[in-house]
Every structure is written in structure tokens, then in C-alpha cells.
Amino acid sequence: MAIVRSRSTRYRVWASHAGLIAFLGIALFPLMMVISISFRAGNFATGSLLPEQPTLEHWALALGFNYSLPDGTVVEPPFPVLLWLWNSIKVATISSVLILLLSTTSAYAFARLRFAGKTTLLKSMLIFQMFPPVLSLVAIYALFDQLGQYVDWLGINSHGALIVASLGGMALHIWTIKGYFDTLDRSLEEAAIIDGATTWQAFLYILLPLSVPILAVVFILAFITTITEYPMASVLLLDVDQLTLAVGAQQYLYEQNYLWGDFAAAAVLSGFPITLVFLYCQRWLVGGLTAGGVKG
Amino acid sequence: MSSYALRNFAAGKGTLNVKIGFKLAAGLALALAGFYLVVALYAQQQLAFALLALVVVSSAGYVYLSRRAYAHRYAYPAVAGMGVFVIFPLLYTVGIGFTNYSASNLLDLERVQAYHLSQTYQSDSGRFPFRLYDEGGRYRLLLDGPDGTLETAPFDFDGSDRLVLEPDTGVTSGEPLAMRDIIKLRKPLSGLRLQLPDGDELSLSGLREFAARLPVYSLQDDGSLIDNRNGERLTIDQDAGFYQRADGEHVPPGFVVGIGWDNYLKVVTDPSIRGPFLEIFVWTLVFAGGTVVFTLMLGLVLASLLQWELMRGKALYRTLLILPYAVPAFISILVFKGLFNQNFGEINLVLQGLFGLSPDWFSDPAMARTMILVVNTWLGYPYMMLLCMGLLQSIPQDLYEASAMDGAGPLDNLFKITLPLIIKPLTPLLIACFAFNFNNFVLITLLTGGSPDIIGASTPAGTTDLLVSYTYRIAFQDSGQNFGLAAAIATMIFLLVGGLSLLKMRLGKMEV
After folding, report:
1. PANTHER family under this entry (chain A) (predicted)?
2. Which end of chain A, N or C, is surrounded by fewer C-beta atoms within 10 Å?
């Protein structure tokens, strides 16, 4: 290629850099703005990107402390942001562990064992995964309403319901793990089985230790999916103290009670860790999202 | 590793029989608990749920007890989870679509009947003048009946509002409370229910008397009700799911009945539903299609720039460009909601300063739709960019070298080499992206909530609503709560999504 570089190429490179930087300026404007707003006094103040008089009022409220304004009034935190974050993390952690356990064993069956209806099951799971749960919310609500009459921790307004409901979304994870198992040589397990190990032991002691990287990826993917889940949580959870962050955050921006500055601090506080985790994992995420979609 | 496994295995063999016994006992206990649930649900008339529980319990029993189904044991929990939380709700929703299930028709016939039969009214016969005595902080009622005076035990208005009347024992002395004290106590008094020795119930009637309460309706053998006040017969209207009076007036609450295709017909024929439905359907297609086109164009251009070997700082650019994708959507959507705010949002501030414009982002339909497309392009381009980068890498570089030899420019390269080579693997992904945005509920709900509203719609419907958020609002918003209609529309979307996913699979040539 180097042989045929034309004279205009240098200008094109500069133009590209300029274009990218301009585009980034626009695309990242909202994110920079919200950080700036979280340090501005009051909920309606306007100003430049760098606040002239930075204040920690919104950050104190987001972290759950009372804040005394200069005129002596004490502001209480409007919403329990940290509790919401904790709820989200709790629900996401438990459900990701369950998802990981169940989808790993399933993926093992689909990758290594032979049984009736395997192909049909795999394909139909992927088709059904495309139906958004938001459409069957009435049924999901009725299901947990019924379950709650027999099992307390599975009723409406319980985190148990949300955790169990998230188990419906395992098909993609099964595909991801199965794809990884397919790349591993099965002769190791066969050798173990010839030496007298059961199928379960071959799975537990041979295959699993080899698959730790993909298991970590699936865990993080499941974690992010659950933490950002909105529709089911909005129907299954009712009390302010039970809400997850995804459902609770919108309460800052009601027309009657518009808390823009407080929201900004809460958003940066809770969004930052999730963003970092996501940035770290995104290269696997894309692989997972396209799994089963393209082969050549 | 395998020797470790073997040692473990040998150690386990000694306790094998105990283990099997334990497993069997645990399995039996679980199966019993499961079948108890099935019977309980069946007894409660919850046929669909009873059936679901039966299928889950019995298939679990088979898979975990039969040796032949050993391989299925590994896959069972995930498949069952999918069945219970995805496929069952889907079928149940389709079923609801054929009923009139809604806020006004919530219960089944038996529960509605029981509700009607529990209604009482105050009869004119049997009036009992009363006197109220204050006995050192507690109260006692004396009633003058036709067969002599009756009295209650001392009570305080603490919520136990059912008192048994017994013949007067004459222990009460002193003056009864004056009328002004009774007026003060009127509210708790009216909550009292007194029971006569023969079982009839009395409640406060006016300020001087208690009167008998009688059931409003009595049940006939054919299920119809007789109104005891005037002898009118209330018949069951199986088509509408209501008890109706002789003049056709419906008596709430209604019950759930199957109404066949009525919900679907309503979508097609009722102008106050068809109009908004069609408008929302078209907008949903425009939104999903537009999002795919815009994000693809932006993503492809950015990916091409980042793949260009002369560019420096690719890693930094890449990380910064991915940021919109990395921030959780529910946060960035709300950030945009604030930034686009018409009165003190930063975007209008900038537009005002630069061009003197301040568009009504939330009250003008066209502007609201523009805003949604802008926000969704922002949210979606990084994903497209990542996809395109992956696909661009698979194109052999010598193709571009050959085209450069022939004097082709960048545009020729794009349209003659790049696009034709990536469009085939990209198509199924674009379909998936279309399907995702077709159902992008979170964006609409958090950003506009569907507003501004469509004028003349009989259900909650907004100009920026997608079909999913429209369905959600019909089902869950206070003015709607028409689950049947929502389920019918949801079923239509199911069919559409099902078609799309089949198409995607066919184009993707999925290998299992």
C-alpha cells in the first residue's frame, strides 16, 4: 500500500483527526455536562462547563448525608440512592451466580452429551429469547402474584421474584459457553472417563477448570444485564426501599419534583463503577451479543 | 488431576447406598411439595398455573429419576427456567388476549358472586332506638327492641367492630350521653356492627337508631341473583362478563369471560383505537428502521476511520467512542431527558445562544421524535462501530491495494469493496438490531413516557409511543388497565418478532 500513497493523503489524515475530535466533542458533551452539573449549586442553576463555584451539596445528598445550605436550612437526601445501588448489586450478584451455574451445566449437555431433541431445544431457546419480556409483563405479574401466596420470598415486591424472573434469559449465555466448550479438545475428558470418572466428574474436574475465562465473562455479562434491567423490576417492585437503581433513578426527574443537580450526582456516583466494568469487558460483550448470529 | 478425581470417586463408593437413599427421600419430599402446589392451585380455579406446576413437577421427576434421561439433567434447569419465565408468560398472554380481563373485569364468576352476596343494605323494618353510656372511658350501648331492652358488653372503639347484643341485665346506671357527644362519636359508631341474638346484623341509621342490615341479593339455582330490595332479577351476561338488571344495566364488578376475537376486532374497527394504533405502528417502524440506518452509517464511518492504518491513537479514540455504550442506558437516557428540558436544559441553552432557537422537545410531536432518534443514535452507534470493526478486519488488505493501483478513491472502495463484502454477515445482526429497537421500551418510557398524547384516543396513547410502550400503558397505566386488549396487541407483536427471528436465523445460517 505504501507504494501508492497519493499527496492528498496527509490532508485526509488531518481532516479525519479533526472530524473525530469534533465528533467526540459532541458525543461526550452530555457526559461532561452531567459531571459538571453534579458540582453546581441548586437544582435549576445554569452555567458554563466548569462550575464557577463548585459545591459538594449534591454529592453529600447522593451519599446519604444531610447538607446545610449557607442560609442555615438543612436539606435531607431525597432518595436512598445507596440503598438502591445496594439492591441492584444484591439482585444482580445472586442472579448472575444462579445464571452462571445453570447455564454452565446446560451448555455442557449441549456441547458434549447426546440426547433427544438437542438441536431443536437449542434453536428454539434462541428464538424465544428474542421475545421481549415487557410484552408478557401481565402474565409475569400474575405468575409471581400466585407464587407469592405459597412462597413469601417469591411474591410481588420481593427481590426473590426479580432474581428468579431473570433466570428466563439464559439462552445467550448458554450459547456463549457452549461455543467455548466446542473449542476445547474433548480427549481429556474421554481419558478421564476411560479411567473410571463419571460424566459429572469429567465435567467438574476437567472441563470447568479449563473454562474459567469464559465463565468470568458470562458472569460479568449477566451482572450488567441484570443491573440495567428495567421493565420487570418496574412491575415487580413497589416500595421505595425495595427499588433497584434502574427503576428508582427516574424519580429524580418528575415534572413536579425536578431534582436535576441531585440526579447528576447520583448518576455519576452509581454509573461510574458500572461504566468502568463495562469498558473493561466490552470486547467479550460484542462476541457474546453476536454469538450464534454469524458464522462466516 | 484424574488421579485426584479417581480417589474422590473411590471414597464415594462406600457411602453409595446411604447417598442413594438420601437422594430418593429428598426427591420424594420435593415431588410431594410440588404436587401439593398443583392441587392447591387447581382447587383455587387457577387452571393455567396448576397445569404449569404439573408440567414442571412431573418433567423434573422424570428427568431426575429416570436413568434414560441422564443427559437431560444438565440441561433441565435452564430449559425449565426458560419455560416458566419466557414461554409460559408468552402463552398466558396470548390466552388473555381472548378475554375481557381488565380493571373492571378482574375476578372470576364465583368471586364476583361472593362479592355481590356479601353486600348488605339497611332495611326499614326493625329499627332500634339506642342510648350510649360512658363507663369510665369505655362505652356501652342499650337498644330498645320489640322484645325488651338489649345491651352490649362494654367496649372501646378499637377496631373490633362486631358486638353481640344480649338481654339487658340492668347493670347500667346514670345518664346516657347527650346528642352532642354522640355527634362527636358518629364516625366510630357508624363503623359498628351489632349482632342480634337471632343472628341478624344492625348498623347505625341516623343519630338515634340502629337498623337491621340485610343481604342485598339472594342466589337462585341458575346462578342469577334476586335483588331483595325490589324483587328484581339480575341475570348473568356471559358475553360482557357482568350481572345485568332487567333494563340491561351492568352491575359492577364484572368477571372474566372469553370474548373470542373481540379485542383484535376492536384494534381493526374501533376508530379511537385503530387510528392511534396505526400511527404508533408506523412510527415504530420508522423509529426502528431509522435507528438502524443512522447507527450503521455513523458506525461504519467511524469504524473505517479507526481501521485506517495511517491513523494514530486508535486505542484512545476507540475507548472514548465506546463510552456512550458503556454508561448504563437507564442513566444516560435520564441525562438526556434533563439536557433536553425545554426550560432549563443545557441543550436549549446552547441552541439559544448560538442560533436563537429553543425547540419544544417534549410537547411538539415532530421535535420529540427527532430528539428520540438523536438520543438513540447516540446510544447505538458504538455497538455498530464495534461490529463493523470486527467485520472490516476480515476483509483482505490486497483488495484495497489492487483498487489503489487502479486509481480508486475512498468512496469507490466503500461502495465497491467494503459494503458488498460486509453486508451479508451484517444483515442478520441488522435484523436483530431492528427487532431490539422495535421493542425499545426503556428508551421511550424513561425519555418521554410516550408524550405528547395523541388526541382522540380512547386508550393511553402518545405520539412517541412504540407498540411495546403503548401495550404497557394500556395494561398498567391508571386510566387503562385493559389487560385483554394489551395482550391482543402483544400477541401481534409476538408474531412479528417471531417472523423477524426466523428470518434472522435463515440469513445467519446458524450452525448447532
Report:
1. MALTOSE TRANSPORT SYSTEM PERMEASE-RELATED, MALTOSE_MALTODEXTRIN TRANSPORT SYSTEM PERMEASE PROTEIN MALG
2. C
Complex ipTM value: 0.89
Q: What is the pLDDT along chain B (512 residues), one digit of tens a residue?
A: 344 444 444 444 545 577 778 878 888 888 888 888 888 888 877 788 888 989 998 888 888 888 888 888 888 888 898 889 889 999 999 999 999 998 888 888 888 888 888 888 877 767 888 888 887 778 888 888 777 788 888 887 776 667 888 887 777 777 888 888 888 888 888 878 888 877 777 888 778 888 888 888 888 888 888 888 888 888 888 888 898 888 888 888 888 889 999 999 999 999 988 999 999 999 999 999 999 999 999 999 999 899 888 888 888 998 899 999 889 999 999 999 999 988 878 888 888 888 888 888 999 999 999 999 999 999 999 989 988 888 888 888 888 888 888 888 878 888 888 888 888 888 888 988 998 999 999 999 999 998 898 888 888 889 999 999 999 999 888 676 899 999 999 999 999 888 888 888 888 765 55
Pairing of strands B138-145, B120-135: antiparallel
Nearest CA in chain B to A107: B75
| Topology, domain B120-215 | Periplasmic binding protein-like II (2.40.430)
Taking domain B18-96, whether its CATH number is 1.20.58.370 is answered by: yes
Q: Which residues pair with B195 in a beta bridge?
A: B164, B201
Q: Which of A14, A58, A102, A130 to mutate to test the interface with B (most CBs of B within 10 A)?
A: A130
H helices present in B131-208, as ranges: 179-184, 186-191
Whether B18-96 and B266-511 share one fold: the answer is no
Residues B238, B232: Cα–Cα separation, whole Å: 19
Q: Does domain B266-511 have CATH number 1.10.3720.10?
A: yes
User: Which cell goes with A81?
Assistant: 440512592
Pair A220, A238: CB distance under 8 Å: no
Q: Do the Cβ atoms of A174 and B428 come within 8 Å?
A: no
- Kindly write down the DSSP assignment for every residue of B364-418, as one continuous string: SHHHHHHHHHHHHHHHHHHHHHHHHHHHHHTS-HHHHHHHHHTT--HHHIIIIII
Q: Smallest CA–CA separation between A70 and chain B, in Å? A: 23
**Is the CB of B501 less than 8 angstroms away from the CB of A130?**
yes
User: What is the distance between the alpha carbons of residues B89 and B81, in angstroms, rounded to a whole number?
Assistant: 12
C-alpha cell at B53: 406446576
Q: Where are the domains of chain B?
A: 18-96, 105-114+217-255, 120-215, 266-511
Angle, CA B198 vertex, CA B193 and CA B200 arms, to 5° = 35
Q: Which residue of A has its CA nearest to B310?
A: A13
Q: How many residues does chain A have?
A: 296
Q: How far apart are CA B265 and CA B244, in angstroms?
A: 24
CA end-to-end span of chain A, whole Å? 26
Q: Cα–chain-centroid distance for residue A65?
A: 28
Residues of B with CB below 8 A from A220's CB? none
Q: Are A271 and B311 a contacting pair at CB < 8 A? A: no
Which alpha helices (H) appear in chain A, and where do they start and end? 9-37, 57-62, 81-112, 118-128, 137-150, 159-165, 171-183, 187-194, 199-201, 208-210, 212-227, 231-236, 245-248, 260-289
Binary contact (B344, A102; C-beta < 8 A): no
Could you count the other beta carbons within 10 Å of the beta carbon of residue B374?
15
Contact B22, B59 (CB under 8 A): no
Nearest CB neighbour to A119, from listed B486, B494, B512:
B512
**B95-132: burial string, b at 16+ Cβ within 10 Å, e else:** ebbbbbbbeebeeebeebbeebeeebebeeebbbebbb
Residue of A nearest to B46 (CA): A146
Nearest CA in chain A to B343: A44
The burial of B398, by beta-carbon neighbours within 10 Å (0-12 exposed, 13-18 middle, 19 or more buried), is given as exposed
Min distance B141 CA to chain A CA atoms (Å): 40
